[in-house]
Amino acid sequence: MMSDSFLDQLQQGVEALSLNATKLPLQDYLSYIDLLVQWNSAYNLTAIRDPGKMLAYHILDSLSILPFIHGNDCLDIGTGAGLPGIILALARPDTQWTLLDGNNKKTRFVQQAVMTLNLKNVEVICSRIENYEPEIRFNTIVSRAFTSLADFYACSHQLLAPVGSLLAMKGPDPENEISALPAEDVSTMIIPLSVPGVTAGRSLVQIVPR
Q1: Is residue 2 pLDDT above 70, yes or no?
Q2: Residue 91 reports pLDDT greater than 90
Q3: Of 172, 204, 171, nearest to 188 (Cα)?
Q4: Extents of the domains making up the chain
Q5: What CA dihedral angle connects 34, 40, 42 and 44, to 10 degrees?
Q6: In the CATH hierarchy, which fold is given to the domain comprising 4-209?
Q7: Given a cut of 90, is residue 189 above it in pLDDT?
Q8: Which residues contact 114 (CB under 8 A, 6 or more apart)?
Q9: Tens-place pLDDT, residues 98-118
Q10: CA 50: distance to chain centroid?
Q11: Burial (CB count <10 Å: 0-12, 13-18, 19+), residue 133
């Protein structure tokens, strides 16, 4: 079990993101890290092994995009170990999340995390995005370390609701990737992010079909 010092570190990080720590399930985030540490030794779900770094690079990094999540139906493509989808679903129980990944061992972990955390607003699907045919369209589609912006747009824009947007979590300089997008079809915005404990620069690229 993670100590009180981790809880303090998480609370301080959340507040540094200008989020209200009292409205977020901080203990659930620590439980998620406990589970991730347990599974990671056997399943190699993340290259980060240190729980303190997991707080920054997984929990706080995911929460940094919380203000930009809109609508009731959200999709996380290439969710991996459930990032950022599980973290955002815990923060926004009023939204419905679909977490998609083609790696069976990763979706098994995500399903276990959903059960452990008693998440009622998450559906886990093991599928490649190219083969995924949902019955609904999504207001927000997110990706984190999934693929290039051009490929992200190409494989997912048809899954958006009419006023939906794509959100790609990227490093500090995504301009080259943006230049590969079909400029006549989309509008883009780069949102700089500052994540406590994450040394590398971060940004969020919002893509809205015209």
Answers
A1: no
A2: yes
A3: 204
A4: 4-209
A5: 170
A6: Rossmann fold (3.40.50)
A7: yes
A8: 82, 86, 122, 124
A9: 999 999 999 999 999 999 999
A10: 19
A11: exposed
The token pair that represents 23 in the structure block: 């409205």
What's the chain's length in residues? 210
Position 29, amino acid:
Y
- Token digits of residue 128: 């490649």
Q: List Cβ neighbours of 163 (8 Å cut-off, separation of 6 or more).
A: 139
* CA dist., res. 61 & res. 36, Å (int): 16
Cα separation values, 156 from 106, 111, 124, 132, Å: 21, 23, 17, 10
- Residue 194 and residue 112: Cα distance in Å, rounded? 30
Decide if 203 contacts 175 (C-beta within 8 A).
no
13-69, pLDDT tens digit by residue? 999 999 999 999 999 999 999 999 999 988 889 999 999 999 999 999 999 999 999
